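Translate sequence into structure tokens.
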Amino acid sequence: MKKIILIFFLLVLTLGYAQKIPTFALRSEVGSYTQFGLRALDKNDLYVILGTSDPMTGSPPQYLVYIFKAKGDVYFYYKNSPLSSNKVELSEEDKKRLFETIHSKKFKKFLNYNQEDFELKNKKKDYPLLLDTTYSLTVIQNGKQNTYSYFSKKHLESDNPRINKRMLKKYTDILDKFGEVKTDKGH
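Result follows.
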């Protein structure tokens, strides 16, 4: 009987810990966040915002917004235009996966990078501007934020000398973790 109680107690502790939000050392003061459809930020919450922007189509950027609440819940919505957003219900499995992602060493280590780490620079040569869909990641917590923007993973096969493939791989791995959420964004 004591073993069962001990196992139950350890299970409760483990599950309780997994739902807590880690505190990250983010660098920049929070700028404007209204483009994400956020009205007011609760400093105890964690906001992870993924965006896509395609300069060729001229369409407005689209965002996936994850709000990790201090009490252990996650809210998710899809913002497909400046005036339209759809809240999406997450399964318990998806919530667990998202909490595992923000607790992962890979995510914590990634937040130590700067935007400048993404591009290889050869000061002796100018390279043409790459016009392509860009993917952004913004993490907001406690009045601070880190924001990153880079190209799609199709550039992993590119021979363009400006592309830092090592960083692009790390970036797309993080984006894919958040993209694994199984939802119908249209509803």
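Note: Confidence is low (pLDDT under 50) at residues 5-18, 182-187.
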